[in-house]
Amino acid sequence: MATYLIRLRLPDRPGALGAVASRIGSVGGDVVSIDILQRGDGEVVDEFGVVLPGDDLTELLKGEILEVDGVELEALRLVEGALPDRHAEILELATALFQQTSPTGVLEYLTSQVRQSLDAKFAATLDPEARRPVAVDGDAPSDIDFASLARRVAAPYDSNDHMAMASLTRAGVVLVVNRTDLVFRPRERLRMSTMAELADHRWGELTSRSTIQGPDLP
């Protein structure tokens, strides 16, 4: 058995989703999850979690899916292990952030988890006033201008952008995530913002406690 995440653009019309599911079933695939990433302007972007009887059926699966009128395939990715559970992912992040004992640890953990959640090339937490990031996870280009990236957070995002950003207002930093293949969809940006807000809240708790107790007290 092989598990895949399949991202599709399909017309927002009755029967389109059922037609795609039927085509997946025709090659022995089992749809085990559907995540709606974007909806509007007569179009939906869905990500299907699909289990196939074998990894030799992917080309046949692609052909079957593309037989549905108006459907476009954005990505088909093999999943190692269990499919991600986005709701459980947020709960697990909140629990792990609560267990962090330092503001720096909060930002480092957030950076790592967001990169993994969004399957990004790299993620970085940036201080807009500094030229060096507070935390980096993944493969960031050696010549990247982090200060310029931090300043982009105030600009409206482009729906075709491969970069996503979120501000942590208490911490005074910006979380930046980049990937080279897929653009970020609104549902993914919302998930990232939620994760950043949880981390920012925990950062505020730790820094307030440090101010009251003093840096040398537990």
Provide an overview of this structure:
It is a single chain. The mean pLDDT is 87. The chain folds into two domains: 77 residues, Alpha-Beta Plaits, CATH 3.30.70.260; 128 residues, GAF domain (Beta-Lactamase), CATH 3.30.450. It has a four-stranded antiparallel sheet. The chain has a four-stranded antiparallel sheet with strand order 6-5-8-7. It is built from six helices and eight strands, in the order βαββαβααββαββα. The protein is an alpha+beta fold and 218 residues long.
Task: Give the tags.
38% helix, Alpha-Beta Plaits, 2 domains, 218 residues, 6 helices, alpha+beta
Number of strands: 8
The appropriate CATH architecture of the largest domain is 2-Layer Sandwich
Taking the sheet with the most strands, its summary is: 4 strands, antiparallel
Q: What CATH first level of the largest domain would be assigned?
A: Alpha Beta
Query: How do the strands of the widest beta sheet line up side by side?
Result: 2-3-1-4
Topology (elements, then pairings):
Blueprint: E1 2-11, H1 16-26, E2 30-40, E3 43-52, H2 58-65, E4 72-78, H3 86-99, H4 103-117, E5 122-126, E6 133-138, H5 146-151, E7 163-168, E8 173-178, H6 186-213
Antiparallel strand pairs: 1-3, 1-4, 2-3, 5-6, 5-8, 7-8
Helix pairs in contact: 3-4, 3-6, 4-6
